[in-house]
Amino acid sequence: MYKEKLEAYMQAHTQEMVEDICELCRINSERMPAEEDMPFGPGAAECLDAALDMAEGYGFEVQDYDGYVGCVDFDSTLPRQLDILAHLDVVPAGEGWQETEAFLPVLKEGILYGRGTADDKGPAVAALYAMRAVKELGIPLKKNVRLIMGTDEECGSSDIRHYYAIEAEAPMTFSPDGQYPVVNVEKGRLEGHFTAEFEASDVLPRLAGLEAGTKVNVVPGKAKARVEGMELSLLEKTAAEVKEETGIEFELVFQNSVCEITAVGVGAHAARPQEGNNAITGLLTLLCRLPLAACPQTECIKKLLALMPHGDVNGKSLGVAMEDEVSGLLTLAFSMLKIEASGLDGQFDSRVPVCGNEDNVLKVIRERMASVGLCLHNDSMTPPHMVDGESLFVKTLLRVYEDYTGREGKCLSIGGGTYVHNLKNGVAFGASMPGTDNRMHGADEFAIVEELVTSAKMFAQVIIDLCS
Length: 468
Description:
It contains ten helices and 26 strands. By secondary structure, it is an alpha+beta fold. The protein has an eight-stranded antiparallel sheet. A six-stranded mixed sheet has the order 1-2-6-3-7-24, sandwiched between helices. Strands 4-5-26 form a three-stranded antiparallel sheet.
């Protein structure tokens, strides 16, 4: 009904929108140490102030929630209907930038480069311009739309917990911090932490130590161990056999009867462990093939590998393999491990489909681990999240997406969690288009201006359709 007007408005305001995005992207808003009235440091506070000033300059009511979150209301006297949840914080600059410096946004041939252009300052400004278009075109609304801008999404979302401790959820919420068409299903998550203790032994040959993993949500590409009292020729022969079987490379450095072994696999995100080749499980496979002296440590390692063997990325050996139509397979990545003379400490990351829960996942793993002397320390897990794909809300988003892009609108399920994971009626709607890799969190992060403009049009149409 308003498509032509929205098209014309966004075309006339594209340059201004780009300039506003650049204003925010020049601010380094990564989390820094807290200061007075700045819970996430001066950068996030400066960016939040700038965004609220920008919105207020366009005639909107704004509110600051203790420096955690800023809100922009279309008309707070109207009944609440729709929240748009975006964030202004960013990950650190990192290395490898070539098109520009991280916090010096630049436009080249329709592509806007800079940290935050895609995640999530660009989409936040697109949402603000959607509200601005509806307002300045004089399109009447019967219900309110609120833009919520957080400042701690990248480091745990404590900003949103603070906000929702004060405010209730809107009947409908979407976050432009995901992908199109609509993400209405997000798997649950169990970040498992387990330990074991055993009697130390110095009998040879033995494992002198093992350390592997960088973060719980990363399939490790490397793992290191030290083996004492074993001939190098035997190590080399066994390593070659295990490499042939697993695809894991082994680098051996022998010195004074101690061999340092580095297992080299392929790293991956823990939500997609099948895309990697796990160096931890590859290294454990090698250790269990070596004739290490019998001792409690050796026995514990064999039992651990039996529960999470190399190549098992779906929890089959732990007894939790499951699948459903809407969210797919359970995945499980063994991601962190440290083994010493008298104990071990490990972590895994499991993404759990909608059919999973604490009874059929957490408790099963705890019992299976306990039966071999491992203690799982978790007493809860993040449950899966699903919003009805047949609801008026989701159907409206899909219809608008189809109308403005000409592409098929369909619901998506993901292994990761978004900003709306804990909201009853929250989904991710954009702002990444299918086929566009915005290099989020990497060097030369970018947003395609035409795609941001399309997002702004769609957000405006959704506001009209849901709030008129």
